[in-house]
Design goal:
This protein is mostly helical. The chain has helices at residues 2-14, 30-39, 46-50, 56-88, 100-103, 110-128, 134-145, 153-182, 200-215, 252-262, 280-294, 307-310, 315-321, and strands spanning 16-17, 226-230, 272-277, 299-306, 327-330, 343-350. A three-stranded mixed beta sheet has the order 1-3-2. Helix 4 crosses helix 8 (153-182), helix 6 packs across helix 8 and helix 9 (200-215) runs parallel beside helix 10 (252-262). The longest helix is centred in the N-terminal third of the chain and has 33 residues, at 56-88. 28% of the residues are buried.
Length: 351
């Protein structure tokens, strides 16, 4: 229940509808929040439980502190995306990729240390080059916001040192999380960076649930008219088997509409989908897609799946049909040599 309340407050406090403009945070007032706080007194965060009774001042302190905490986690999530790029990217280097199993040896294996060193050199060089791809532009902007200047040799040196230090931190964080999972403690997860990465398998599980609800009569044919997606994601070098040869993309809004149409639950021509995300990068991307659609430009989704995913019963069929209710197949971006045999690729142009 505490998680539910935190999520509800998170939506009100930090989630803004997609917008291409910078926005000033607007905090829910104590008067507006009071009905929810009063209805769930046993589920309040510890800081608010300590303020008995809760005053407007205590609420304002908590909500602003929570906002700073969440924004910090969003920044940490951007850093995770950058680390995924460093570990798994294939467009800027010919070095071997560093999966999670290999990462555990970073700092102890001379071979892996050398691979990481070369990858960091290659990535800094690519980020500093003129006219990089969209994903690299976003990661360069992230580094610049941290104060790194990729235009100078000293700035590039510091950027490389930052990348390798954060790679070591990622290794340590993962080791800590594995210990917590074994001991059934998940305290560390509440502070984890909020990465935007996603993949099609999550969209597949959504369709399975929608199908189950339809079969149970919980959803009637044509009954879905409005949908809200919290955290639609922005796929770019996701942590599992990600790659950077296609531009950042959002898949879930389109996949949900496609599934609803396939199951006869909604009309894709009229269903309304609203997205909410605490990442400005996600919101800017979706707002740009809406503007492009208004001018007649389709949205092309690269449909990536791994060899292990297509072996899951039902997923291959889902992957083969994905997008057929809202668009048409188009030629996908070719899979680089380093990933052939690991990733399957197709693409759909969403009308």
């Amino acid at each position: 229940m505490q998680n539910k309340l935190s999520l509800m407050l998170l939506l009100f406090v930090s989630c803004l509808p997609a917008s291409s403009h910078a926005q000033t945070p607007e905090f829910i007032t104590f008067a507006s929040a009071h009905p929810a706080l009063a209805a769930m007194p046993g589920s309040l965060p510890p800081e608010l439980k300590a303020a008995d009774p809760i005053t407007a001042a205590a609420w304002d302190r908590w909500v602003r502190s929570r906002d700073r905490e969440i924004r910090s986690r969003v920044q940490d999530g951007e850093e995770i995306t950058l680390m995924n790029l460093l570990r798994l990217g294939v467009t800027f280097t010919k070095q071997e990729r560093i999966d999670f199993d290999a990462l555990d040896s970073y700092g102890r294996s001379p071979t892996l240390n050398a691979i990481a060193e070369h990858r960091a050199n290659d990535l800094v060089r690519a980020l500093a080059a003129p006219g990089p791809a969209e994903g690299l532009v976003e990661m360069r902007e992230f580094l610049e916001r941290q104060g790194f200047n990729l235009k100078t040799s000293e700035g590039r040196r510091k950027s490389k040192a930052y990348l390798l230090a954060r790679l070591a931190r990622l290794r340590d964080n993962l080791a800590h999380e594995r210990k917590e999972v074994k001991s059934n403690k998940f305290e560390g997860f509440k502070d984890r960076g909020l990465s935007t990465d996603s993949d099609l398998f999550a969209d597949y599980t959504v369709e399975l649930q929608l199908r189950h609800m339809a079969e149970k009569g919980l959803l009637k044919p044509g009954s879905v008219h409005r949908v809200a997606i919290v955290g639609p994601g922005l796929d770019f070098v996701n942590k599992k088997d990600g790659a950077d040869f296609y531009p950042p993309q959002t898949t879930q809004p389109f996949a949900v509409i496609d599934s609803l149409a396939r199951l006869g639950l909604a009309d894709p021509a009229s269903v309304e989908v609203s997205t909410f995300d605490i990442s400005p990068r996600v919101n800017r991307h979706i707002e740009r897609a809406r503007k492009n659609a208004a001018s007649g430009q389709p949205y092309v989704v690269q449909l990536m799946s791994t060899q292990s995913e297509v072996l899951v019963p039902g997923f291959r069929e889902y992957w083969n049909k994905l997008g057929d209710r809202i668009g048409k197949p188009v030629a996908p971006i070719p899979v680089p040599e380093a990933l052939r045999g690991l990733i399957n690729s197709s693409a759909v142009s969403v009308r």
